[in-house]
Amino acid sequence: MRESGAHCPLCRGNVTRRERACPERALDLENIMRKFSGSCRCCAKQIKFYRMRHHYKSCKKYQDEYGVSSIIPNFQISQD
């Protein structure tokens, strides 16, 4: 039988209210991602890992191959 409430996706342990209200950032991971870079899958431009998602949202070659992310809202501009 499954317990109700939030669980950690990594260890499946219970997540307390305090942890949900004010989660701790993984600063060690963030700092590592700021130090290293990799190349874009499509245009081969060197990008720092912490900026890669932003790059993919604006990389024309990436969007042509993989499509536009469904997370990005599709705004309609009126022709007034």
How much helix is in the residues? 25-40%
CATH superfamily of the domain at 17-66: Zinc/RING finger domain, C3HC4 (zinc finger)
Tell me which CATH architecture of the domain at 17-66 applies here. Answer: 2-Layer Sandwich
Give the overall silhouette.
elongated
Number of helices: 4
Beta-strand percentage range: 5-15%
* CATH fold topology of the domain at 17-66: Herpes Virus-1
Mean pLDDT across every amino acid position: 81
Give, in order, the helices and strands. HHEEHH
Radius of gyration: 19 Å
Going across the biggest sheet, name each strand in turn. Answer: 1-2
Q: Are there runs of 5+ residues with pLDDT below 50, and where?
A: none
End-to-end Cα distance: 57 Å
The largest β sheet comes out as:
2 strands, antiparallel
Structural class, by secondary structure, is mainly alpha
* Structure summary, number of beta strands: 2
Describe the fold and architecture.
Its main location: nucleus. Keywords: Chromosome, DNA damage, DNA repair, DNA-binding, Metal-binding, Transferase, Ubl conjugation, Ubl conjugation pathway, Wnt signaling pathway, Zinc, Zinc-finger. With 80 residues, the protein is mainly alpha-helical. The protein has a domain at 17-66: Zinc/RING finger domain, C3HC4 (zinc finger) (Herpes Virus-1, 2-Layer Sandwich), CATH 3.30.40.10. 35% of the residues lie in helices and 8% in strands. The chain has four helices and two strands. It has helices at residues 17-21, 27-35, 52-58, 60-66; strands at 37-39, 46-48. Strands 1-2 form a two-stranded antiparallel ribbon. A hairpin with a 6-residue loop joins strand 1 and strand 2. The longest helix is centred in the middle third of the chain and has 9 residues, at 27-35. The chain is elongated, with a radius of gyration of 19 Å. The model has no long low-confidence stretch (mean pLDDT 81).
